[in-house]
Amino acid sequence: MKGREVRAFYIDNKKTLWAGTYGQGFYAIRNGKAKALPVDRNDYLLAVHTFVEDKKGFMWMTTNHGLFKARTQDLYDYLDGKSNSVFYYYYDKNNGFANNEFNGGCDPSSVVFPDGKFSFPSMDGLVQIYPDSIIDILPDSGLQI
Predict the structure, then answer these.
(1) Is 59 within 8 Å of 52 (Cβ atoms)?
(2) For the whole model, what pTM was predicted?
(3) How far is residue 100 from each of residues 14, 31, 60, 72, 83, measured CA to CA in Å?
(4) pLDDT grade, residue 141 (50/70/90)?
(5) Which of 26, 22, 19, 29 is nearest to 5 (CA)?
(6) Mean pLDDT in the chain?
(7) Which of 3, 27, 57, 145 has the fewest CB atoms found within 10 Å of its own CB?
(8) Using alpha carbons only, what angle is made at residue 15 by residues 53 and 72, rounded to the nearest 5 degrees?
(9) What pLDDT was estimated at residue 102?
């Protein structure tokens, strides 16, 4: 992690330390070793501001370009060499946000309320969601060309 500008730390229930940097991606630190996680195809995950886990097994991350979530088990499968990629679900203005840019330079950069609601500061107000009630539209069939 030398030379990395770390913006966010989060320790999960498996004692993994997640680190989000400003411009150098995000990392999982286990057993004293840091491993970079793959970023999305647009490199938006090069600047991760916060990590929040929901009750359905997803890790949520804010960036300067929108909100991402990944199945936490998929992140661990990548770390353990069981997978060579991670699927990220991406939320932006098309999902109703006023602004895609989340504020990572503030403290706190996310809040989890007792009722399960997440609150993320953006450059145009707060984005608040109930993550466990979101139903994503995922591909359910193969691609044919």
Answers:
(1) yes
(2) 0.90
(3) 31, 35, 15, 23, 29
(4) low
(5) 22
(6) 90
(7) 145
(8) 35
(9) 86
